[in-house]
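Entry 14. Structure prediction run on the chain below.
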Amino acid sequence: MPTPISTLRTTTTPKKPIVDPRPPKFAAPKANITLPPNLGRPPVARDLIIKKGFDGLTREQAVAKVLAGLGTKVAPQNATLAKETAGEAFRNFNVAMSNTFLPGSPNNVFLKSLGNQQLTLLGTMSSIQPTVYKAVNPANGQTKYYARDWTGNFAELPKPPLNVVMEARLRLEPPGLVMSYPKWKNAALSGPLSTIVEL
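Output returned:
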């Protein structure tokens, strides 16, 4: 069984944040997300049918952008893993974005509690922390990262997340975003991944 990308080690040097004084050009959400009819039970995140993400791209289009931003070669045997993991990142990111803009949701309440911060939602290739919020203090450029912990609450992370493949600068009211697909690297995808043998 291939090792999940979330467990692969990469080395990155955090860059000093740049606070842009110019207001970003936020776009209105373009998501097309529905639920199957007649579920017969309360819906969960896995039930969502994401026809288009919040930037208007389909899953296939977003995955293509994620893989185009990969700065390392992908070995043929790892191509399916990379594609499927990028697809999961797309789903996780857009579910988190939906909760971000939903009034009264835990995500929305938490972000509003941060006050006048420059907020960005980060989507990663990690199954442990698939989405992370970045908050930058516009007064001094101090940057903090937050993700849900095992209790379901948001906790500050000790360091920035790795393998960020999509991000959106946020405006909570009215809902708006500036979407981008940053460059990323994962050298482990270039060769054989370790396997776990079940006895």
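The helical segments are 59-68, 79-101, 106-113.
Filed with the rest of this week's runs.
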